[in-house]
Design a protein that fits this description.
Elements: H1 14-26, H2 41-65, E1 71-73, E2 78-80, H3 82-87, H4 103-114, H5 118-131, E3 139-141, H6 142-162, H7 175-187, E4 201-203, E5 215-217, H8 218-222, H9 225-235, H10 239-253, E6 264-266, E7 272-274, E8 276-277, H11 284-297, H12 300-316, E9 318-319, E10 322-323, E11 326-327, E12 337-339, H13 345-352, H14 355-372, E13 378-380, E14 385-386, H15 398-410, H16 414-430, E15 431-432, E16 435-436, E17 438-441, E18 446-448, H17 454-467, E19 477-479, E20 485-487, H18 521-524, H19 528-531, E21 570-571, E22 577-578
Antiparallel strand pairs: 1-2, 3-4, 5-6, 6-7, 8-11, 9-10, 12-13, 13-14, 15-16, 17-18, 19-20, 21-22
Helix pairs in contact: 2-16, 2-17, 4-5, 4-6, 4-17, 6-7, 6-9, 7-9, 9-10, 11-12, 13-14, 13-15, 14-15, 15-16, 15-17
Bound molecules: 1-deoxymannojirimycin.
GO molecular function: calcium ion binding; mannosyl-oligosaccharide 1,2-alpha-mannosidase activity
Cofactor: Ca(2+)
GO cellular component, one term: endoplasmic reticulum quality control compartment
Length: about 575
């Protein structure tokens, strides 16, 4: 396999940054001055501009060859209507003049603002407000429609409001919000089930179709709360948030005694179909939305779900830096696979403040990235080989996303070098004249004719923010699972300005300000973090105390996880928890 070209390397300044991070961790949120991270301004600007080029190469090709259809086919310079793709609908049923939902444009709006192109953002807003309609006989996937279309519109609306004074063509008049509300209303029939768990598919014009499948995934019905919660708060119509929250509560009530959830379920019976689960496909954003809903809305209810769920993941799925899958009922490992989607987890852990664990896993993902040049969709850890069929890389953002979070938390320029490798690979393997193409098979680097919209909403956005985070200054955002920023507002938040939720949750504002690992660190390991001294190992959220303070136990389930090694403790014959078995 060819190696991608590498950008010039700077003199490493990583040690300085690591020392500062340790100092910052040791002092909790106490001030720790961060001088320049040693990466170099010119190099940073070079990489920033490189990402700009990538974004516009993808965006302009989409606008030329695919707009107003949904996504670009970069090899044939044609288009695909992703409503059909997202929903597998029968194209013949669509109206003759059906033009798609301009999905990639909707998905690009927030990125255009992050990149500082308000003129193009405004052009997009105006076009969408005059042309976009959801009154089409199209069956779409609720989850995808929510994170891509609804999330893109809501985020675009909030940004249009915030940047209103900088827009040129007249006043913004909430057009994107009206579109979002129109779409949200069309989602509501999906929630009309005995359990409150929504159908996975909805016809935008006619609601739930006859004989619609009743099977859905955990992420499909457990990651709607950010967009639908925001929609309710913006419109004053509580139905959206109520529907998403009811579904989330129901899902959480279905957890096992180990606080694990499965991967697929039936929305009519509320019974699990697939008991094996992990942190990747079908589940991933369920965890993400619990913690992000807590950050955005401040309700303890989200934290009270997230915390045990997170600890259960660390206890039952984690194996050193890897996360395997396990049966939700027994915690027994089922599949030993690395998946590309799992690469968001270190980003989530960084948001949470579990930087040590995040860094460890991120490095392993990077090793796999280096080995193949990109991340394969699935890699069999037990056989040390690619999955026989899932060998593709569809330009996914998750690894870049985690790299961005880790750099924000640590200011360690090593992550900027990782970004260089990602950018190098994307340009070398996937850039074609007509845009950026997905990789069909990472062992041959054969390409596939598809540029997914998330390449613009997430992959390019996180890579840009890695080198230029000026968008984050003076504002706190939480990014949806599709990379759309939602501002954290005190009017939406139950706790701000309470002292334990500092305002700067997602960003390091500039180099003269202290590193803030995360406001949530203190909730994961309340005392141990602040007791750490410089140079000692970092506490990790994998720490789970034994059930009884005496460390007595009846079974292994009464034992927790060692904080430093993250090894699971077991119950001895004499009835004490300890590291008796070197199982991990
Ligand atoms: C995105 O659509 C979202 O991040 C989703 O949650 C899962 N991953 C894809 C991109 O890989």
């Amino acid at each position: 396999m060819r190696s991608p070209p590498r950008w010039p390397r700077p003199a490493p300044a990583r040690l300085v940054a690591v020392a500062l991070l340790v100092a910052a961790l040791a002092g909790g949120f106490a001030a720790a001055a961060v001088p320049g991270d040693g990466y170099g301004h010119a190099r940073r600007m070079y990489m920033r501009n490189k990402v700009l080029e990538m974004f516009y190469h993808a965006y302009e090709n989409y606008m030329t060859y695919a707009f107003p259809h949904d996504e670009l086919k970069p090899l044939t310079k044609s288009f695909t209507d992703s409503l059909s793709e997202l929903g597998n609908l029968n194209l013949e049923r669509l109206p003759q003049d059906y033009n798609g939902s301009a999905l990639t444009l909707v998905e690009s709006l927030s990125s255009l603002v992050v990149l500082g192109n308000l003129t193009e953002f405004e052009r997009g807003v105006l076009w969408l407000s005059e042309n976009l309609t959801f009154d089409v006989d199209a069956r779409i996937n609720l989850f995808e429609g929510n994170i891509r279309l609804l999330g893109g519109l809501i985020s675009g609306h909030l940004l249009a409001k915030d940047y209103n004074n900088d827009l040129k063509v007249g006043q913004y008049k909430d057009q994107l919000l009206h579109l979002a509300e129109n779409l949200g209303r069309r989602f509501l029939p999906a929630f009309e089930t005995p359990t409150g768990l929504p159908y996975a598919w909805i016809n935008l014009k006619y609601g739930v179709m006859e004989n619609e499948t009743t099977e859905t995934s955990t992420s499909g019905c457990g990651s709607l709360i950010l967009e639908m919660g925001a929609l309710s708060r913006l419109t004053g119509d509580s139905r959206y948030e109520a529907a998403a929250l009811r579904a989330l509560r129901k899902l959480w009530s279905m957890r096992s005694s180990l606080n694990l959830v499965g991967t697929t379920l039936d929305v009519l019976t509320g019974k699990w179909i697939e008991y094996s689960s992990g942190i990747g496909a079908g589940v991933d954003s369920f965890y993400e939305y619990l913690i992000k809903a807590y950050v955005l809305f401040g309700s303890d209810e989200y934290w009270d779900m997230f915390h045990p769920a997170y600890l259960a993941v660390q206890k039952y799925f984690r194996h050193g830096p890897w996360y395997h899958e396990a049966d939700m009922r027994t915690g027994e490992a089922t599949h030993w696979q690395l998946t590309s989607l799992q690469a968001f987890w270190p980003g989530l852990q960084t948001l949470l403040g579990d930087v040590a664990a995040a860094n460890l896993s991120h490095r392993e993902f990077y090793n796999v990235w280096q080995r193949f040049g990109v991340l394969p969709e699935r890699y069999l850890l037990d056989f040390g080989m690619l999955h026989p069929t899932e060998k593709y890389y569809p330009l996914r953002p998750e690894f870049a996303e985690s790299t961005f979070y880790l750099y924000q938390a640590t200011k360690d320029p090593w992550y900027l070098e990782v970004g260089e490798a990602i950018i190098g690979s994307l340009n070398y393997y996937t850039k074609v004249e007509g845009g950026f193409a997905s990789v069909r098979d990472v062992s041959t680097m054969k390409l596939e004719d598809h540029q997914h919209s998330f390449f613009l909403s997430e992959t390019c956005k996180y890579l840009f923010l890695l080198y230029d985070d000026s968008f984050l200054r003076n504002q706190n955002y939480i990014f949806t699972t599709e990379g759309h920023p939602l501002p954290i507002r005190s009017s939406w938040h139950e706790k701000i300005p309470a002292t334990h939720v500092p305002s700067n949750l997602t960003s390091v504002k500039d180099d003269s300000q202290p590193i803030r690992v995360s406001a949530l660190t203190s909730q994961v390991c309340p005392e141990t973090v602040s007791r750490q001294s410089v140079g000692s190992p970092w506490e990790s959220a994998c720490h789970i105390p034994d059930v009884f303070p005496t460390h007595r136990c009846r079974t292994d389930d009464d034992c927790g996880v060692e904080s430093a090694s993250c090894k699971r403790r077991t119950c001895s014959m004499a009835g004490y928890c300890g590291l008796w078995l070197a199982a991990y």
